[in-house]
Amino acid sequence: MKNLAPYFYFFSNAAVLVPNKYTPSPPKVVGWEFGRTFSYYQLVFLAIMVSMGITRCLMTIEKEDTPERRVRPKRHMTFCLVFGIGCAVVQLAMLFWFEPPSQTRYTISTLLQFLQVLVITWFGMEYCMTCSVNYNWLIIPTIITCSLTIYGFDWIGRVEYSKLYLIWNMCIFSGLLELWLMWWNGVVNSYIYDISMDNIRNSDEDDDERCINCSKFSC
């Protein structure tokens, strides 16, 4: 089962845009002690993701298809996965170590998100646009384990952090699955890259046909 892009990439981008700033505003839900709001830093992160993402996409999508081509993106994505999983673990640990209105937690979290945006967008985009893995039956136990873990975090954690428990655990489990499949089964061309190569081949064939017709007409 080949997918358009790694689940980890989607979840990491979503994690950066989840409301992450806590203020002692009046609770909107009974039982909540703090309100969760967006930060203007997240708009900067979104702009970086879009601008760098488009740049990397244009740089990599039309690379010639060779066996060596997948080595570099695979190595880069390995770094992205390890870094992203590490960030998610630290983010989860801080949710238990610091109280919701902690400025220290917010500062560290924002810095980690900024670094993650740079790493995932610059190095991970090349992989996402050109490579994929064949997801197999391991995705089912991964989903089950991730769901049980999220339930456990919700049970012992704070209700204010419920959405962050969700997204960071999804990053961890999807990243571990992607890392295992990538190195155990290898990587294949993504659908996006195959479509791009088909378009290039069709364009080259049309150009060759026009050249042949022009040469015949000249004769």
Automatic annotation (TrEMBL):
Bilayer-crossing regions: 38-58, 79-98, 104-123, 135-153, 165-184
Keywords from the named record: Membrane, Transmembrane, Transmembrane helix
Keyword Membrane attached: yes
Domain of life, per lineage: Eukaryota
Protein name: Uncharacterized protein
